[in-house]
Amino acid sequence: MGKEWISASDVEKFGYCPLSWWLSRKKTEEATGEELEEGKEEHEEIGKKLDDVKKKEKQIKLLENIILGLAVSSTLVSMLGLTFLHPERIFNKVFIFLSLIWLLAATFFLYINESQIMDTEETKLERTILIFAMVATMFTGFSFSFPVSNDLLAQVAQVVSLSWLVGASYWLKSSFTLQSEATVTRKKLKVEEGEIKYVDKLEKESKLLESEEYRLRGRPDYILEKEEALIPVEVKTGRVPEGPFFSHILQIAAYCLLVEEEMGKRPPYGLIRYGETEFDIDYDDDLEDLLLEKLDDMRESLKKGEVHRHHHREGKCENCSRRDICPESLV
Predict the structure, then answer these.
(1) Could you tell me where in the chain the CATH 3.90.320.10 domains are found?
(2) 96 Cβ neighbours under 8 A, 6+ residues apart
(3) How far apart are CA 90 and CA 93, in angstroms?
(4) DSSP 185-231
(5) Are 178 and 118 in contact, with CB atoms under 8 Å apart?
(6) Strand 269-274 to strand 222-226: parallel, antiparallel, or no bridges (unpaired)?
(7) Strand runs labelled E in the chain
(8) In whole angstroms, what is the distance from residue 7 CA to residue 13 CA?
(9) What's the predicted TM-score (pTM) here?
(10) CATH, domain range 6-31+195-325
(11) Do 100 and 141 meet the contact criterion of CB atoms below 8 Å apart?
(12) Residues whose CB falls within 8 Å of the CB of residue 7, separated by 6 or more in sequence, listed in order
């Protein structure tokens, strides 16, 4: 029989008090309390807002591609219109050569896009942009290959070009609006740097990070990417301490280990946020060794089937959500 799975939140409970962790395993007697419920609601609200920011920033990237595609396409169509008015043979070969380069590049990227396993709305729109660019490029090549003087065709090309520019302007405005909304939300949540790579949405099923080797699993509140480094972040509600609590340090260490195991990048540090106060927790070898030691202690406790309080601090018992069902409570 393999080792039992342990969650990062269990590591936090064990770090606070082994007996509190042990009591939390008894689901039918699990204490709730107003503070726990309020904390859960606050986490849900943060998760929703961060997920909204993540979606908007993804839309912004998509809109940037749309704007670029429309701008390039309108330019090419505009050039097409000019050739109907002023076909100059001296530029024919040059522009046909450029047209072929654009066409080959677009074909290559279209092939790469089609080879992707996931066929999301984003890839469909990007495919449409590429096709538009290809068609516009072919029109340009044809216009130089067959020099014709036709005012009507030139006018049609200019109208199409202007229409696409209007479309690009509309999407640009939408992009600015989304960027503004995302920036405001980031400032409110004090998440002003880094790309949001992961969010624990609580009310929805988000990816569970797992380490098969250490039989550890969990979901950090969110993961940021800063300068190519993945940084797990844990948000704590309630009072703001002068320094991070030991149990919370263990929990963020667990998330650092999970990020490394799941995503292949070792975080240089993790973040613990208490309100507007933020603490960087270096994820070095010493902290990793301490985490693994605590995991061994937890499994040893499970094996023995007996756990006791490991402190003599009344304040800890006073703030413990399981004090009413604890046989060793000091209060």
Answers:
(1) 6-31+195-325
(2) 141, 144, 145
(3) 7
(4) HHHHHT--SSEEEEE--SSS-PPPEEETTTTEEE--SEEEEETTEEE
(5) no
(6) unpaired
(7) 6-7, 195-199, 209-211, 216-218, 222-226, 229-236, 269-274, 277-282
(8) 10
(9) 0.64
(10) 3.90.320.10
(11) yes
(12) 216, 217, 218
Distance CA 150, CA 209 (A): 63
Q: How many residues does the chain have?
A: 331
Rounded-to-10 torsion of CA 60, 66, 71, 75: 170
Residue 300 in tokens: 């040893």
Structure tokens given for 47: 């998760």
Give the torsion sign (CA, 51, 46, 317, 325).
negative
Digits of tens for pLDDT over the chain (331 positions)?
A: 567 899 999 999 999 999 988 888 875 344 445 444 544 566 666 777 777 777 777 777 777 777 777 666 766 666 666 566 555 544 554 455 555 555 555 555 555 555 443 444 455 555 555 565 656 556 555 555 555 555 666 667 666 766 766 666 676 777 777 777 777 777 776 776 777 788 776 545 678 899 999 999 998 988 888 888 899 999 887 788 889 999 999 999 999 999 999 989 999 999 998 888 889 999 999 999 999 999 999 999 988 888 888 888 888 888 888 888 888 888 7
Q: Is the CA virtual torsion 281, 287, 290, 291 positive or negative?
A: positive
CB contact burial 44-73 (16+ within 10 A = b; e otherwise)? eebbebbbebbebbebbebbeebbebbbbb
